[in-house]
Structures are given as structure tokens and as C-alpha cells.
Specification:
Largest sheet: 7 strands, mixed
CATH topology: Maf protein
Number of helices: 5
CATH architecture: Alpha-Beta Complex
Helix content: 25-40%
Bound molecules: inosinic acid
Radius of gyration: 16 Å
Number of domains: 1
Shape: globular
Oligomer: single chain
Order of helices and strands: EHEHEEHEEEHH
CATH class: Alpha Beta
Distance between the termini: 12 Å
Structural class: alpha/beta
Length: about 190
Amino acid sequence: MTICFATNNSHKLEEVRAVLGEALHLKTLSEIGCLQELPETQDTVEGNAKQKAHYVWDHFNVPCFADDTGLEVDALHCAPGVHSARFAGPQRSSEDNIALLLDKLKDIPERQRLAQFRTVIALILPQGEWLFEGVVKGTILGHRRGKGGFGYDPVFQPQGSHKTLAEMTMMEKNEVSHRAIAVKKLAEFLQTS
Ligand code: IMP
């Protein structure tokens, strides 16, 4: 089956391809002729995932899925959540986002810096629409560690791990990550339906 993964993020594409292996032939947005920025103006991660997938379906009429992720920090009442990409401003800089996050948490002891990444994938096929969720719980560290991954990975340490997501290989990240959990659910659905 050929399906488009509606993302412009090359890290996500690589992670998702590694989880799916040969099971699915993934097309990129540029391969289907979609060169524009996808809209993501909703106020929930579910809403944004659906909005991106619907945009591709409506304009290009190909089976597709899109993901959206929020980092939900307990001490910040689940912020930045759906605003994770633009937490520190419209420039969408991961460096700035992490700096702001660390600043907001600077007086909070490490054991109280609980957080989770939550990914929702919206899948659109000719016969309907489905959502798949993946969550990984962990802690926000006081400083960055590791050079891999992207986004908030250098400050997020999953529960039960001594490494941040940025210190893990892609395979290690894919064993625990929010996105990999959601993608595995998607793959199982596609294999059994
Ligand atoms: P998006 O809207 O799903 O692309 O992601 C929202 C924000 O969360 C962006 O700032 C991303 O860098 C960040 N993000 C998404 N997925 C991950 C991840 O796997 N690790 C770290 N940060 C992520």
C-alpha cells in the first residue's frame, strides 16, 4: 500500500520509516506535489493532526496520515501542549523553546518536573478517518543532554531510562517514543483492515 505521510519534518519521516519498515510505501509531501506549508491552526493536537491530513486529502486525493505532538508539562498545567512548536515565538526555534522551558522550570525540583509527549496520528483512507495516540511519560531535566533527535529531545528523559531522547539512537528512541507507539498502532490497523 502507498500512503503519504503529511510532514515536512525530515526527522519524523526518518523515525516513522524506521518503524514501518517495508510494510508500507511512504510517499513524502513533495512526492505527491504538495510543496506548501500545511495549516495547523487548531487548539488541540487531535485537531491539528486532522487538519493536516484533511488538507492533503482534500487537495491531492491520496490516502495519507499526519501527526501532531504536544509536550505536556505537569508543573505548567500541561503547557506548552498544542503550542509546543511556537512556545517561545513564531520562529519555531527548538533552541529558544528549550531555553524558555528550562527558565520556567528553574525553581522546580527535578522530581516534580514530570511531563509527557503526546502524539496523535490522523489517518484518512477513502473509506474513512481514524485517530491513533501515543504517549511517553518522563522528566524534564535541568540542562540539555545529547545531540540526536530533534525538538525537546535533549531535555526529555523517559521514565525508566538514564538517557534523554537525544542521547538515544533512533532505534532506541523508537522503542519508547510517543510517535513510535502511535505509528505501531497505525501499522497494526493497516495490516489487519
Ligand atoms: P509538531 O507540531 O508535531 O511538529 O511538534 C510540535 C513541537 O513538538 C515541535 O516544537 C517539535 O519540535 C516538538 N516535537 C515533536 N515531536 C517531538 C519529538 O519526538 N521529540 C522532541 N520534540 C518533539
